[in-house]
Amino acid sequence: MSETTWYKTDNVAKVFLxxxxxxxxxxxxxxxxxxxKIDPELLQQALLNAIEIRPQFQVRIxxxxxxxxxxxxxxxxxxxxxxxxxxxxxxxxxYNGVLHYRVSYFGRRINLDMFHALSDGTGMFEFxxxxxAEYLKLAHPDKIGDVKTGSGASDGDLTQNSYSQxxxxxxxxxxPPIKAYHPVGRKLPYDQLQFMEITMDFDSVRSLAKxxxxxxxxxxxxxxxxxxxxDMPALMRKQPITxxxxxxxxxxxxxxxxxNFFNSINIRCHLSGEEDxxxxxxxxxxxxKAAMKPENIAEQMDSYQTLERLLFIRMVPLMIKxxxxxxxxxxxxxxxxxxxxxxxxxxxxxxxxxxxxxxSAFCSHSEMFFTVFTYNGKLRLGMTSAxxxxxxxxxxxxxxxxxxxxxxxxATEVIR
Length: 416
What we know:
With 416 residues, this protein is an alpha+beta fold. The protein contains 13 helices and 15 strands.
């Protein structure tokens, strides 16, 4: 990119830019573990190849008078050995880099960390997919050969602000905020998060979901809600346990953007203590089904975009907007107990599968965030938690092992 171009940040990016901090860096991480040790020189070349195919992330975020904007840059990324925590800070006064993503390696693992203001999980994984394919093509040129990478979409389509493109002017959606339950107890030190990876057999868990008559998301969500309710103080049991479920809007609108294009729907669970997993799971499934009707999805998306288009908001300087957006973000966090993002099944090219052992994914959050996906017969959850107490996860694992599900848990070390 020799010619500098710029474009406005989307409305979701504005929230991430206003609300990031040392704990919740608003960074996503996706990792792949290969069957062989990573060659740093090949990985560097693969990354340079990948940005030729997908140059959309060769940008830096700038501050304007009214809003931030994104500007292209000729700065080249450099791979590095993994150090520090997952989801590191990739934007802000404590960050000295130019680009807002980082590729690192350790042993057989490759990591891609990206600031959420650039992209959502879908756009990020498409870029990561290109990096993995380019690396394995370089490592095994005789065995892999040509592998299709990228969607073939134009640069304009990939950098499109799809929120603006599909804005329908339906106005603001008036829903009063309802405070959700949050675990009682101390949080970790301000610059720390706990990362856990929970792995189990996919077919075994899917069978339990079928027996309960619910979807996999409904079943996992029900286990989490039940596990959280188990430790709720009696005086707080009137509060709902609210699950935030991200929705990929590319399912509803013909978009190939690599930028953010998602909504989140909130599922509130009011429990009495008598509900079983099947009952909770059915409630979650029904609420998701209702919220994901096209007309409801469009109304919610337009509600977010309407705020950005109001003249009196557009004319307020950024230095005043930032604290206001940050305050609204904190208020929104109070309405959610945890986030549950089902990424579905990861399907790399068949030529690449023999070299890929496993994947993992995390997203920083001020409370708790769970990613869920399957690969090669394994169901894997990536948990991010700001809390010192891990009883909620222990309850969740116990419920699975009580159903004869073999569970493996790996966790990062934290200073408590």
